[in-house]
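Sequence in, structure out.
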Amino acid sequence: MTTGPISELATAVALGSALVLFAACGVTKSSFECSNANCDVSLSGSGSDAELESLGITIVLERVEGDQVSLSVVTEAGGPDEVVEVSEGETVEVLGNSLTVETVDGDDIDLNVQPG
């Protein structure tokens, strides 16, 4: 069976549309490991979160622009949330915890969080 330019174009358009739909889904993932309340966290994609029970907080990745990261930090105690803007390599104090953005790679970030 031979294919012509129109068939190849239709296939390319279909594959391109599928990739756009997949990217628009906003695939998110997260992982973390805590030892003695010192937590290493990896977040990928806006809306990804990590519930750090040992610290009583949840961290939500809001957005990444270059090496600047916007995070919401929510306390499990029902207090007010805090939104912080942090650059790669920077440490901030938030809700009694020290949060360091270790690496930023596209929408993937690695954090270290420990009691302040």
